Amino acid sequence: MGYRKLGVDNKHRRSMLANLTISLIMNERITTTETRAKEVRRCFDKLVTYGKNGSLVSRRKACAFLMNNKEATKKLFEEIAPRYEQRNGGYTRILKLDERRGDDALMVIIELV
Fold first, then answer.
1. Could you tell me the pTM of the whole model?
2. How far is CA 58 from the centre of its chain?
């Protein structure tokens, strides 16, 4: 399965997605462009699946993706994953906003359901 390049190289894209995912976990709501939000949703869904599994391997995989951010990993496994125990996907909601003023990129709010 492919992925969006988002106009940056591989290391920058991975770091950007990890940072956006950490912000989503910590704040439970972020504003970004539509294409970035769709990619963050894919990453976040995978992390919640790890959290619902709860094994040590899952915790290590999530921590590795979140760049060893202990607070975000702890919140993911102790608060967010138990909230979605009965849900099979669809953990986020994307609300469309207006275009960004400088380059007319479609801005959205991505938040936890």
1. 0.92
2. 16
